[in-house]
Specification:
This protein is α+β, with helices and mostly antiparallel strands and 207 residues long. The protein contains four helices and ten strands, in the order H-E-E-E-H-E-E-E-E-E-H-E-E-H. Helix 3 (163-171) runs antiparallel to helix 4 (195-206). The N and C termini lie far apart (51 Å).
Amino acid sequence: MGLTILSRSVASLLLLAASVLAAASDANAPRQYIDEETGASVFFVGRPLVFAHEHPTFGGGVPRSSPAAPTMPVPPRDYVTLAAAAVDRGGKYTYVLIGYFWSVGAPLQGETACFGGEDLALQLGDRRVKLAPFNGSARDAGISQAIQRPSTDAKSTIYSTDLATLGLIADSAHPVLYCGAEAAPLKYELREDRLPALRELVRHLSN
């Protein structure tokens, strides 16, 4: 009797673990659709990368325990979401990173942020990859739908890239994003490890 109950418990745990792994795999799986406006086949990442810049007010300028902190219920942070996509037009592929720029909370007056249109740079260990805005709109690139847009008020900028660069980003241990002027760029840290989703997209496009 005891062994039977134990066996059932082990089997239930194995089934639960398999379900969790399957759900994670589904979340990381690439997405695809046919764009009716442009006629292109669009492949895009299942889970985009999200980078955050925390303002000094909550990062060190004013301690969280200070009387000033309660006046700001939400720590002000600026975010950049990078969604990788590939556009297939008759067998000719174009690769892009769609950057969304959005914020949570209100920074103090005079604090800087990136609002879209700026040059970006990704620090991948000892290698830095620069990203320049695409000369045109997302529709010009073949994408008429908002892919992985984090919020309706997020501003977007398209960045040209290639499959090899997407592979470098996917294989990096902890990419760091820099936005704005090269002399004093704003630093954005990766919020969550969604690199497996990018690796899945790269693997799919490489086959």
